[in-house]
Specification:
The chain has 13 helices and 15 strands. By secondary structure, the chain is α/β, with parallel strands linked by helices.
Length: 344
């Protein structure tokens, strides 16, 4: 049995990870400041499923003493706590910096000071690659695609921190890498693409797969910013957690590494693709309108996941069709709670 500490553990990815590790018999502590929509409900569900899970209410920006105490008692520290919306970072860059950059730094320092430093897994983002304006994108029916990168974007892509969010997450990304070289910590960076699944309370600015799915379920329209042909590789949260497991099991190889983690070329959706998929699942029509392109919105982002496949023996297993259907089923079963969360 290992001891897991999950910062942001009441969030979407965190609650799924905590549930998974607890099911496998590990001791799990969830640390969260409960500032995000849906975290209170996620934590209640988690504790109902696993009464032995510890829940610590703390803020990574200010509660260093609590963080130090928890980091000193864990074998694996999964750092998921973050401010996750680009738009929010633009309107409030200081808070974005404090949560993402300072919060990650505090996590690393807590791990470094532990008598037995834990493995640290960090949830980074593909936004560290910026707008990639030099990459040629072509139109192909109802979607865009890379002209010259059929297998997606690899980890050797030059970093280009665009937006306050990109800067804060990118700074943390590089700190996590450097603590391996300078202090000998065992850390792994996951530059994640579009993750979706149960317990996700998506909004228009972040978590678009969940947002579109919920709107379809409620019979309400969505706004598409741009032409809807934008493409992302999408990854079911269970497949992401499988990557976490693989990195921990192979830490001698994964430590100090960066992995682009997403659905890869085989699991991609455009916005129009998702609408068509939801219409098929629901047997209804998701009404949608079009707005202006958002500044910096990439027409395509697809992860080259071959390094993770090679080093970790990992590949996505869940098709978008199956994954979206699973998320929709969870939403349908918990619709009353979801509506209460969004209206609160």
């Amino acid at each position: 049995m290992a001891r897991y500490l999950i910062s942001g553990g009441a969030g979407f990815i965190g609650v799924n990870a905590a549930h998974h590790f607890a099911q496998r018999g590990h001791a799990v502590t969830v640390l969260d400041n409960f500032s995000r929509r849906g975290t209170e409900e996620n934590a209640k569900w988690l504790v109902a499923q696993h009464p032995a899970i510890r829940v610590v209410r703390a803020d990574l920006r200010t509660d260093q003493k609590a963080l130090d105490a928890e980091a000193a008692q864990c074998d694996v520290l999964l750092h998921l706590a973050a401010q996750v919306a680009v738009t929010t970072s633009v309107t409030d860059p200081r808070t974005d910096f404090e949560i993402n950059a300072l919060g990650a730094f505090n996590v690393l320092e807590a791990a470094r000071r532990a008598s037995r430093p834990p493995i640290v897994l960090y949830s980074s983002t593909n936004k560290v690659y910026g707008g990639m304006e030099d990459v040629v994108v072509v139109e192909d029916g109802n979607r865009y695609r890379y002209r010259d990168f059929p297998l997606g974007i690899g980890e050797d892509r030059l970093l280009d921190f665009h937006s306050p969010y990109g800067c804060s997450k990118g700074a943390a990304d590089q700190y996590v890498r450097d603590y391996v070289r300078i202090y000998g910590l065992r850390t792994v960076v996951f530059r994640q693409s579009c993750i979706y699944g149960p317990h996700q309370f998506g909004i228009e600015d972040q978590g678009w797969v969940a947002w579109f799915t919920l709107r379809a379920l409620l019979g309400k329209p969505v706004t598409i910013y741009g032409d809807g042909k934008q493409v992302r590789d999408v990854l079911d949260v269970d497949d992401l957690i499988a990557a976490f497991d693989a990195a921990i099991e192979r830490i001698d190889r994964s430590s100090g590494q960066v992995y682009n983690i997403g659905g890869g070329p085989a699991h991609t959706l455009s916005l129009l693709d998702l609408i068509a998929l939801l219409n098929k699942v629901d047997g209804t029509r998701l009404e949608h309108s079009f707005g202006e392109w958002r500044p910096g919105d990439q027409r395509v982002y697809v992860s080259d996941i071959r390094r993770a496949q090679r080093d970790l023996g990992w590949s996505p297993k869940t098709s978008p069709e199956r994954g979206v259907a699973r998320m929709r089923a969870w939403m349908g079963a918990n619709l009353e709670t979801i509506v209460r969360v969004y209206s609160g």
